[in-house]
Write a structure and sequence with these properties.
The chain is mostly helical. Helix content is about 70%, strand content about 5%. The chain contains 10 helices and 2 strands, in the order H-H-H-E-E-H-H-H-H-H-H-H. Strands 1-2 form a two-stranded antiparallel sheet. Helix 4 runs parallel beside helix 8, helix 6 packs antiparallel against helix 7 and helix 7 runs antiparallel to helix 8. The protein starts with 7 loop residues before the first helix and ends with a helix.
Length: about 240
């Protein structure tokens, strides 16, 4: 048609076909109940099963590898991937940095807001389900935070460990993975902007201590309030100009 790019249709068809083949491969994994690490059918078998060319299979598998849905081991075959949240983390980091190229506080505030909403809601459930053994583990992490805080050392690894342990009692594997994803995005954005760590390691340790104290008392409101103060403290620091 006049005025229409000559290659507009041909440029759309491969993308649509590639997406369809990706969905078919994913459906094959689901239908056959293949778990992470399981060997997928060979390229030739996929060509026969899906009725497509070798190049189409390869392009679809490359796209699925980028999503961690499959793992291509050259010379060995293609395996079911871990389906981790790594692609989500990379995408969110890039999106946040691009959308807030000149607005550091806005970039960090978006990530913090999502984490805060999730954790403030979840902490109420934790307060009624966490066991004494789990509280002891949290207490041990906070004790290590306090030692580092007194020495003026930041402790991002302990912070992450605390929040991962915090929701173990919920028995939901997705919760710590999702929260860890947002934690990683925040740290990456913070690092990319060259911003310093939390204002005071000792103060950060105290925020975490208050959370554990409230949980030991089975104080649902107190636990939520302690979590709110924790995030407000981080948000205040994130909004502070360098």
């Amino acid at each position: 048609m006049p005025g229409q790019p000559r290659n507009s249709r041909t440029s759309e068809e491969p993308e649509s076909r590639n997406s369809r083949i990706q969905r078919q491969v994913m459906q094959l994994i689901i239908d056959r109940r293949l778990q992470a690490g399981a060997l997928l059918p060979t390229e030739a078998e996929l060509m026969d099963d899906l009725g497509v060319s070798r190049n189409s299979v390869r392009e679809a598998l490359k796209a699925l590898q980028a999503l961690d849905i499959v793992e291509i081991r050259h010379g060995y075959g293609t395996y079911v991937g871990q389906a981790s949240l790594t692609p989500l983390i990379d995408g969110l980091t890039f999106r946040t940095l691009v959308r807030h190229e000149r607005d550091d506080s806005g970039a960090l505030a978006e990530i913090l807001q999502v984490r805060e909403v999730l954790e403030e809601g979840l902490i109420r459930r934790v307060a009624t389900s966490v066991t004494e053994v789990e509280l002891d583990r949290l207490d041990a992490v906070v004790s290590r935070m306090e030692v580092a805080g007194r020495a003026g050392r930041s402790f991002p690894d302990l912070d992450r460990e605390f929040h991962e342990l915090l929701y173990a009692s919920l028995g939901n594997d997705l919760v710590p993975q999702l929260l860890a994803a947002f934690w990683t995005v925040f740290r990456r954005v913070n690092g990319a902007r060259g911003r310093p760590e939390d204002p005071s390691p000792a103060l950060t340790a105290r925020w975490h201590r208050d959370i554990v104290t409230a949980l030991r008392a089975r104080d649902v409101e107190g636990a939520q309030q302690a979590m709110t103060l924790h995030f407000h403290g981080i948000a205040t620091r994130a909004a502070t100009p360098d």
